[in-house]
Amino acid sequence: MDHRAKPGPDGGGSGRDAAAGTAIRLKRVTLARGGRTVLADVSLTLAERRIGLIGANGSGKSSLIRLLNGLLVPDDGRVEVHGLDTREQAAELPRKVGFIFQNPDHQIIFPTVAEEIGFSLEQAGRPRRQAREEAKAVLARHGRAHWAERPVHALSEGEKQLLCIIAVLVMQPAVLVLDEPFSSLDLITRRRLEAVIAALPQQVILVAHELDAFVGYDRVIWLHEGRVRLDGPPDTVVEAYRAFAEDAAGAPDARAAF
Ligand SMILES: Nc1ncnc2c1ncn2[C@@H]1O[C@H](COP(=O)(O)OP(=O)(O)OP(=O)(O)O)[C@@H](O)[C@H]1O
């Protein structure tokens, strides 16, 4: 499947300053997967430029961000992305929301780098021949002109993630959503990718387990068992989450689990 083609009660943190139509709004969203409620009555306005999402495995992070590009629709409530209802206007979402998956192999579909980017350009409306030419120019702008004919399988994990980001950005989305993009990257590659992300003009919504990834972020949201547990400045939320996780890991039933 090509994901580019679909590419308080508010619960919000600081700076809810976006005008109507330029924010993402979850309104009393409930979502079930596999017969279980995985998001329960979640309301959020996401307007800040840099937003992090943290929480334990299974807390609902991936489910929540899949609501933003229409890969999932709520069972109850509404999700609006810059005024578009994700249930009714799904076809228009790829122009708004670019999505980067944890595993680049789930995203990349073409054998060479230039073909992969060319396809995104075609999705953005370029005729095929123009798309292939423009793909080379795009790579050159990112300092990767030498990648054009490279087979995708010959790229490292970090290079594949960068390719995914470049391919999604040519669609010029207003929002970039990243689902654990660092999980298989070494620290140097991660820092480089973080720097690439930090320089983007887009709104960024990042899911990560690496708690030091949110330096400079405007807001971090901690999801716990399908609900917002804490929402605010990164330092406050990350510290509370860290303390909670250390406590939970030290609890007798947690030790017995191993
Ligand atoms: N395709 C699916 N079918 C059924 N249940 C699912 C599916 N995907 C996720 N779930 C369930 O939904 C819940 C939330 O999963 P989700 O992937 O959103 O969590 P997460 O916070 O992103 O976790 P992780 O940190 O492990 O990636 C989990 O209990 C999971 O088992």
Could you explain how this protein is built, in words?
Residues 24-250 form the ABC transporter domain. InterPro entries: AAA+_ATPase, ABC_transporter-like_ATP-bd, ABC_transpr_CbiO/EcfA_su, ECF_ABC_transporter_ATP-bd, P-loop_NTPase. This is Energy-coupling factor ABC transporter ATP-binding protein. Keywords: ATP-binding, Nucleotide-binding, Transport. One of its GO terms (molecular function) is ATP binding. The chain has 258 residues and is of the alpha/beta class. It has one domain: Rossmann fold (3-Layer(aba) Sandwich), CATH 3.40.50.300. The chain is 31% helix and 23% strand. It has helices spanning 61-68, 113-123, 128-141, 157-169, 187-198, 234-250, 252-256; strands at 24-33, 36-46, 50-54, 76-81, 84-85, 97-100, 175-179, 203-207, 219-224, 227-232. The strands form two sheets. It has a six-stranded mixed sheet, sandwiched between helices. Strands 2-1-4-5 form a four-stranded antiparallel sheet, with helices on one face. Strand 4 and strand 5 (84-85) form a beta hairpin. It starts with 23 loop residues before the first strand and ends with a helix. Residues 33-34, 38, 55, 57-63 line the site of adenosine-5'-triphosphate (ATP).
Quick rundown:
The chain is of the alpha/beta class and about 260 residues long. It is about 30% helix and about 25% strand. It has one domain: P-loop containing nucleotide triphosphate hydrolases (Rossmann fold), CATH 3.40.50.300.
| Shape descriptor | globular
Alpha carbon gyration radius: 19 Å
Order of strands across the main sheet: 6-7-8-3-9-10
Strand content: 15-25%
Largest sheet properties: 6 strands, mixed
DSSP helix fraction? 25-40%
Helical segment count: 7
Q: What structural class do the secondary elements suggest?
A: alpha/beta
Overall CATH class:
Alpha Beta
List low-confidence stretches: 1-19
Return the domain count. 1
Keywords: ATP-binding, Nucleotide-binding, Transport
GO molecular function, one term: ATP binding
Organism: Ancylobacter oerskovii
Protein name: Energy-coupling factor ABC transporter ATP-binding protein
